[in-house]
Write a structure and sequence with these properties.
21 strands; elongated; alpha+beta; 31% helix; 596 residues; 8-stranded antiparallel beta sheet
């Protein structure tokens, strides 16, 4: 028997409510195209079944978004009759629900029509608008009946954008999606009517259009202002969706530079196997996110060399698995004109001063140092965190974030304790910003002085020949003894070995990549190891947390990392008056400064 396929008749809620209250993980989606909430409740990976009004509303969001995506794919594939039929059904539902109240919408939300939240509305509208656009370009019959829907969706997008502009939120990621929704519906309607589109000033070029928005929300270093991998891609994808039919060379030069800069950020951030560290926030690993990255990579080709994002696209396609139904193929011919000139490959050291990240590549170790402003993406207290990846192995990732409706785990993943950062007296860092002190071709040094009263923290990370050196220096400015801690927060299995003399040894086990660590300090340390929650895609997965702690007025903590695949092997690490002395099996040595 063929599976049931129907559009839900209910308004969607808040998708972040789709989380297990017991275990903190996102619930299984089931078959969102069925239009039927999973029988017996939504399934948790740990065996729970959850059925509440909020969870049902969240699942309905996922179902409507899946249907919008499906309709867009049908339109591209040439199944005109089925696409128009489904769009007509949505036209009736949209008219019916838009007249009702917003049952269950939270007070802080900028409210939508089909969904409680205007942002979710806009994401859905973009797919619907582009589906009609594709049908109208081909002259498919029946699209004229969709004009009231298109006009009402554009009007709703404009009203919501005006609310944001009036309250000073031109830079909001809501604004990008509402703009993309306005463009998609307005241009689709013009094609259906057979008239020129007159909305460019309203949506693209005007004082609150896409160009002004990108100037407001993207820094000179290419990062979207929230400093989150997830929201960076979220905004870039919406911007590219809004520019369908555009010649990249015809854009204002500074806008084109911002778009290519955003793509350059992803190229520099990604590991060699295309893993994008989940910096600062957002879903850690989930199939819908993989599909978003896949679409983004297809859209971005004319703003960057195709090879730039090849590894990211391959990784996204593998993670999407069977859910990859060819949506990226709908972006073929999205832009007119030739691609923009290519950019240089990422350097061994890349520093993003506005966002406050430094990415270092050292003999198979991909390191990211976080020192930027607080609060960009929901305020993680993680200054001077050091994230470590291999080609694909998440040796020490940013832990990410659970769906926001789970208050307890959301707070945990924003905390200092959850990050590979530092603590003083076991307390949380204050909300603060770090700063860049120095950089060169192989190293970066950053500091923070406001995380704890009277304590200066400096972290220097250097790429050596076949190894990476990390030096964290914590200094109590009045000379009193306090409890100073540097933290390891692995995303993989970890062994810790205390030696009779010399450094503490760690071994980090990726799926097919092994990392070795040597850890020593200026004073005797207590390497306390205990179970802690793993990254946010599964908070119940215990990992070995390590706190290197000392009661002192000054702590210099040195860590040297080397992959099992690189050599010559490190044989000793010693902190001297001149810096850090690293010895190798072939008799050679390397000396690194501390940065303090």
């Amino acid at each position: 028997m063929a599976p049931v396929r129907r559009i839900p008749r209910e308004r969607g809620g808040w998708w972040h409510a789709y989380v297990c209250p017991a275990h903190g993980g996102e619930l299984d989606h089931g078959d969102p195209l069925s239009g039927l909430f999973p029988e017996g409740g939504a399934l948790c990976a740990r065996g729970c079944r959850v059925d509440t009004p909020a969870v049902r509303g969240a699942w309905t969001v996922l179902a409507h978004q899946a249907w919008a995506r499906r309709i867009r794919v049908l339109a591209e594939a040439g199944d005109d009759a089925e696409a128009v039929r489904l769009l007509a059904e949505y036209a009736g539902l949209y008219q019916e629900l838009a007249a009702d109240g917003h049952d269950g919408a939270q007070p802080w939300m900028l409210r939508g029509r089909l969904f409680h939240q205007a942002l979710t509305d806009a994401i859905w509208v973009v797919n619907i608008g582009h589906a009609v656009w594709t049908l109208a370009e081909r002259g498919a019959p029946g699209t004229d009946t969709l004009l009231p829907l298109l006009d009402e969706m554009e009007r709703a997008a404009l009203e919501a954008r005006n609310v944001l502009v009036d309250r000073g939120d031109l830079a909001s990621n809501y604004t990008t999606w509402l703009t993309a929704a306005g463009v998609a519906t307005g241009r689709a309607a013009a094609l259906v009517r057979g008239t020129p589109w007159d909305g460019a000033k309203q949506w693209l070029d005007g004082p609150h259009g896409l160009s002004a928005h990108l100037r407001a929300c993207v820094g000179d270093d290419g990062w979207q202002w929230e400093g989150s991998t997830y929201y960076h891609g979220f905004v870039l994808r919406a911007a590219l969706l809004a520019l369908r039919g555009t010649d990249p060379a015809a854009l204002p030069a500074d806008v084109a530079a911002r778009l290519t800069g955003m793509i350059d950020v992803l190229a520099a951030l990604a590991t060699d196997d295309g893993v994008l560290p989940a910096l600062n926030d957002g879903p850690y690993r989930r199939v819908p996110l993989a599909l978003e990255w896949l679409e983004l990579c297809a859209l971005a080709e004319q703003f960057a060399p195709a090879a730039t994002l090849t590894a990211i696209a391959a990784r996204a396609r593998a993670e999407a698995g069977a859910a990859d139904d060819g949506l990226d193929a709908t972006t073929a011919g999205w832009f007119t004109g030739p691609a923009l000139p290519g950019r240089a490959a990422p350097a061994p050291v890349t520093v993003f001063e506005d966002a406050g990240y430094a990415v270092l590549r050292a003999a198979g170790v991909h390191a990211t140092l976080a020192f930027g402003p607080h609060g960009g993406s929901h305020g993680h207290r993680d200054k001077l965190s050091l994230f470590l990846h291999g080609r694909a192995a998440p040796w020490q990732p940013d832990p990410g974030q659970v769906p926001y409706a789970h208050d307890v785990f959301r707070e945990h993943y924003a905390s200092t304790a959850a990050h590979p950062a530092f603590r003083v007296d076991g307390a949380e860092q204050a909300e603060c910003a770090g700063r860049l002190l120095a950089r060169d071709a192989s190293s970066v040094t950053s500091e923070v002085t406001d995380a704890y009263d009277g304590v200066r923290a400096v972290r220097r990370v250097a790429a050596g020949a076949g190894h990476l050196v990390d030096v964290l220096t914590l200094t109590v400015e009045d000379g009193t003894e306090r409890t100073l801690t540097g933290q390891l927060r692995p995303g993989v299995g970890l062994d810790v070995q205390v030696q009779p003399s010399g450094p503490v040894r760690t071994t980090w086990y990726g799926e097919d990549e092994v990392l070795h660590g040597w850890h020593t300090a200026s004073v005797p340390l207590r390497p306390v190891t205990r179970p802690g929650p793993g990254p946010a895609d599964d908070p119940q997965l215990a990992r070995s947390w390590v706190d290197f702690t000392a009661r002192t007025a000054r702590l210099v903590l040195v860590s040297v990392y080397q992959t099992a695949a690189h050599g010559p092997a490190v044989t000793g690490v010693r902190l001297t008056g001149d810096g850090v002395d690293v010895r190798f099996a072939d008799g050679s040595s390397a000396v690194h400064g501390t940065g303090a």
